[in-house]
Amino acid sequence: xxxxxxxxxxxxxxxxxxxxxxxxxxxxxxxxxxxxxxxxxxxxxxxxxxxxxxxxxxxxxxxxxxxxxxxxxxxxxxxxxxxxxxxxxxxxxxxxxxxxxxxxxxxxxxxxxxxxxxxxxxxxxxxxxxxxxxxxxxxxxxxxxxxxxxxxxxxxxxxxxxxxxxxxxxxxxxxxxxxxxxxxxxxxxxxxxxxxxxxxxxxxxxxxxxxxxxxxxxxxxxxxxxxxxxxxxxxxxxxxxxxxxxxxxxxxxxxxxxxxxxxxxxxxxxxxxxxxxxxxxxxxxxxxxxxxxxxxxxxxxxxxxxxxxxxxxxxxxxxxxxxxxxxxxxxxxxxxxxxxxxxxxxxxxxxxxxxxxxxxxxxxxxxxxxxxxxxxxxxxxxxxxxxxxxxxxxxxxxxxxxxxxxxxxxxxxxxxxxxxxxxxxxxxxxxxxxxxx
Length: 437
Prior knowledge:
mainly alpha, Growth Hormone, Chain: A, 79% helix, 0% strand
């Protein structure tokens, strides 16, 4: 294990087993993203819970958007509190437990129970997003700056393995249930229990191995949960001098909006537009995760050689091509090409973005600045899926038009990435604290 996590990639005093524990959190929570948001519960909600109503896709994306809005407004304040008391790991444990419980509770949602489904979706996805932000803030404490992409890629790559394992277990159960003649309302609840169990069990490895490295920031402002909005304004003000970090956030809002569409609506598009059956959709997402694993792991090494900015630029071009192919696909075979390219781009783009944020964030304020990064990602997660849902609704269900418009988000992200200067931004992050007067 120590040979896999090479010493030259890690910060002084960090052991390979600790990085393994950190990466295992990506393994743990990817099952939630894969099964609940992408492959199973999303299509189940639209087709069975909402009974295929014309507004069902918009209702699903609205529930996701509300959870992301909550995270946007509260995560920077929570990150500042975690920095102040050196409590990132403690907070991560609480949020993980809450996500596991609310994911298991999704098993109680049946046909027609739209309000219950949306409430539990908002709760589970909010806690999932909190955990995703907190685990990302550990990255600069574990990896050397020149190896940030590599180590980020390890996490994303292991994460996709976790997503594939969880989805594979669910797929095996679904095929067995269908062989017994069971309907979706009977086998989907069990997949929620499987997802919650894998999430909770794998996260225990993280809690056993990962350490809290940052010392308490006793001079940081005290931030309670209800003061998060005020803390968000203050953090944005403090971050203004870090122009490359701010520019990267703007870029992330654009391209992550498109990524969020792929994550939240892939199964819905595959089933309603291309004609996939539920088990075919699960196989599709399984293969997409396989490609995403390769993208995250291989590009993790490549971006340290090519440069994070060039690596991210290449993936944004790939995403644009993906959307065009998906919009023009008239058969399952053509859509498979789009899914394969999307998988490679998904792993590499998210790995590269997280690594760049780690380089541009001040080391003493990682929780707070990754709270801002989460703000950008969650704003994108509102703009992308909600925009897709609105276009679909207003165009009388034309999802091809919606996915075509999504390609423009990746083009915009590429344009916003161009002014980012990593060397200048890194010097700013490591330099003296800017005068805020």
